[in-house]
């Protein structure tokens, strides 16, 4: 009986040791599985982070490419704006020059038409002045007619003045080919050589423009005059 008890006790001890070993093995297996799971989770987390970083890097590259494209478009638009602005400035300058040129041509044309019209009226004024110098009224009827002529003449002169016409009155001035037309040279000691001593046909200005040149007589010195054949034949030496 004692031997059976001892044998039973040994059997129980062996079973207990086996159970403990099994428990230890289970615990080791569980720990190992936990560690493995932890390593797998860590690996998965690193993979996810690496994937996110790659995605972020790709997004940054895409954004940088878009920004570069936008900057290029902005540069192109600035260049186009500068070209259009320069083109507009040239067109504006050309239009302003055209407007000034057209205005100047119009003014010159108007002035030319005005000159032509007024020039056609000057012979009428000349005839009134010749009549005034030649007509010597004797009777009351002649004087009345003469006054009527003079009133018309004054009215015409007033109208010409209102349009900017003024007489040159070159007598006593130095001869100027831009204003005067020399018809006669007369030797004289009363005036310096080249001085206008008489106005044969009156000259007129229209503003600062010559409306009609004055036909004048110009002074010449005696020593420069060559005696004519008639004067030599009438001299005492002949």
Notable characteristics:
rod-shaped, disordered C terminus, three-stranded mixed beta sheet, alpha+beta, 238 residues, 3 helices, three-stranded antiparallel beta sheet, Nucleotide Exchange Factor Grpe, Chain A, domain 2
Largest sheet: 3 strands, antiparallel
- SSE topology string: HHEEEEEEH
Strand order of the largest sheet: 1-4-5
Helix percentage range: 55-70%
Ends distance = 212 Å
- CATH superfamily of the domain at 167-238, called what? Head domain of nucleotide exchange factor GrpE
Quick one: how many beta strands?
6
The CATH level-2 architecture of the domain at 167-238 is identified as Roll
Question: What can you tell me about this protein's structure?
Answer:
With 238 residues, the chain is α+β, with helices and mostly antiparallel strands. It is built from three helices and six strands, in the order H-H-E-E-E-E-E-E-H. The strands form two sheets. It has a three-stranded antiparallel β-sheet. The termini are far apart. It has helices at residues 2-134, 140-162, 229-233; strands at residues 165-167, 180-187, 196-201, 204-206, 209-212, 214-220. A hairpin with a 2-residue loop joins strand 4 and strand 5 (209-212). Mean pLDDT is 79; it is low at 228-238. The radius of gyration is 62 Å and the shape is rod-shaped. Among the domains are: 1-30; 167-238, Nucleotide Exchange Factor Grpe, Chain A, domain 2 (Roll). Helix 1 (2-134) packs antiparallel against helix 2 (140-162). Keywords: Chaperone, Coiled coil, Cytoplasm, Stress response. InterPro entries: GrpE (IPR000740), GrpE_CC (IPR013805), GrpE_head (IPR009012). This is Protein GrpE.
């Amino acid at each position: 009986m004692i031997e059976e008890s001892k044998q039973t006790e040994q059997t129980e001890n062996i079973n207990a040791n086996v159970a403990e070993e099994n428990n230890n093995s289970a615990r080791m297996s569980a720990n190992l599985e936990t560690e493995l799971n932890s390593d797998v989770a860590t690996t998965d987390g690193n993979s996810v982070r690496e994937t996110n970083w790659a995605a972020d890097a790709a997004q940054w590259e895409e954004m940088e490419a878009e920004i570069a494209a936008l900057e290029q478009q902005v540069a192109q638009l600035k260049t186009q704006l500068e070209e259009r602005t320069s083109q507009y400035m040239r067109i504006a300058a050309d239009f302003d020059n055209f407007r000034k040129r057209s205005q100047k041509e119009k003014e010159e044309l108007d002035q030319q038409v005005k000159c032509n019209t007024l020039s056609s009226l000057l012979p009428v004024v000349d005839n009134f002045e010749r009549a005034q110098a030649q007509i010597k009224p004797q009777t009351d009827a002649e004087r009345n007619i003469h006054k009527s002529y003079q009133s018309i003449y004054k009215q015409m002169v007033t109208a010409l003045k209102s349009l900017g016409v003024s007489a040159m009155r070159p007598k006593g001035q130095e001869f100027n080919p831009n204003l005067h037309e020399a018809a006669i040279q007369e030797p004289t000691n009363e005036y310096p050589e080249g001085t206008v001593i008489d106005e044969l046909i009156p000259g007129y200005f229209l503003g600062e423009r010559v409306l009609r040149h004055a036909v004048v007589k110009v002074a010449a010195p005696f020593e420069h005059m060559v005696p004519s054949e008639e004067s030599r034949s009438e001299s005492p030496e002949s």
